[in-house]
Structures are given as C-alpha cells and as structure tokens.
Amino acid sequence: MSEDSHTVDEDVVRALVATNNIRIDRTKRKERLKVCTLFEEIARDSRVEGKNEASIEFAKRMLSGGKLSVEEIAEYTNLPKETILELQNQEELSQG
To answer: What is the mean pLDDT of residues 62-85?
Structure first.
C-alpha cells in the first residue's frame, strides 16, 4: 500500500495538531502522513479504551445486581468471560 492511499480525517488531525502545538511543514508529505497515521491510531486506541472502561463499569454493576450469569454479562458487555470472572473475584474479595 502506498502512503498516498491512506485515508486521513483532516479535521481530526488539524484539531490534534492545534491542541498539541505541533507544527507540520506542509512540504514534507511523508512526515505529515506519518503524523496523521499516528494521530489516527491514538484516537482509535482512545475510543477503544474508553469503551472497555465503560463495559467494565457496566459489568461491575451487573455483577453487584446478582441476577445475571457470568456468561450473560460477557455477552451483553462484549467482554471476555475471563474478565467477568476476574471482576467477580475482585468483588468477592472486597466484600470479604
């Protein structure tokens, strides 16, 4: 894949560059594309991380309700069953 084929959300990049006081030389296309790709990866990772945190909090609330099985909670939150079991163990230890 050539670097020219990257899809870049220019508005996102401009906002990130502005908020991070980064200066990009407009004549350096390769470097600019690398920075754009990096910012897209950071934004994507942040969104995924935020979704996981929300899912974990939701799973904790469902566990504390005591009405759903581990399998149901894993299905509803899209978290692995092992994660739900870890949360369940943490809850049991804290109630100890």
So the answer is: 92
